[in-house]
Write a structure and sequence with these properties.
Blueprint (H helix, E strand, L loop, with lengths): L1 H13 L14 E4 H4 L3 H4 L3 E11 L6 E5 L6 E6 L16 E14 H16 L4 H21 L3 E14 L2
Parallel strand pairs: 1-2, 4-6
Antiparallel strand pairs: 2-3, 2-5, 3-4, 5-6
């Protein structure tokens, strides 16, 4: 499952997009990252506060970071919103527990992209790539397709946040 979340985060990094804020001044609802997915669909485009631990900050620009919850089973990408107060995410934040307030967003990975991921993994396997890595990728594809089937969707959803402010909690 961790590999699935890594692939989802990686896919989000490739397809990162921005949107217009609709509730920038609204009071944020707070969630532990481990519990966010249960309500994420209803919170898209809303201001929320998410608590998690920083696992990565972008070295060059500092314009995004990744956080995980206590269980480390869920990862969320947080982009710096240019209209917010976060200038950048400093690398010294690695391992810190943060409360980040921002606008929850979603990215749709279309079925065609998932088909391409599967094709790439099979081709890599045929060319002598790591069987373990290819099996993990194929498992991720299977989980995404099952998620889509269970929800009657023709896309897979990856959630991310446009961060406005953060507070170090530890």
């Amino acid at each position: 499952m961790k590999q699935f979340l890594f692939v989802a985060a990686f896919a989000l990094a490739l397809f990162s997009c921005s949107g217009n804020r609709q509730q920038g001044d609204a009071l944020a609802v707070a969630y532990d990252l481990d519990n966010l997915l249960a309500v994420a669909e209803e919170q898209v485009e809303n201001t929320v506060t998410v608590v998690g631990f920083v696992t990565h900050t972008c070295k060059h620009s500092g314009q995004k970071c990744f956080i995980v919850g206590e269980s480390q089973a869920i990862s969320l990408q947080v982009n710096v919103d240019p209209e917010g107060e976060i200038g950048s995410f400093n690398p010294e934040l690695m391992g810190s527990k943060l409360a980040i307030t921002g606008i929850l967003k979603e990215h749709h990975v279309l079925g065609e992209s998932i088909d391409q991921m599967e094709s790439n993994a099979l081709q890599t396997l045929e060319e002598g790539g790591s069987p373990e890595a290819c099996a993990a990728e194929l498992n991720n594809v299977s989980e995404m397709r099952q998620w889509m089937l269970d929800r009657g969707k023709d896309y897979f959803v990856i959630y991310y946040m446009d961060g406005l402010t953060y507070e170090v909690l530890d």
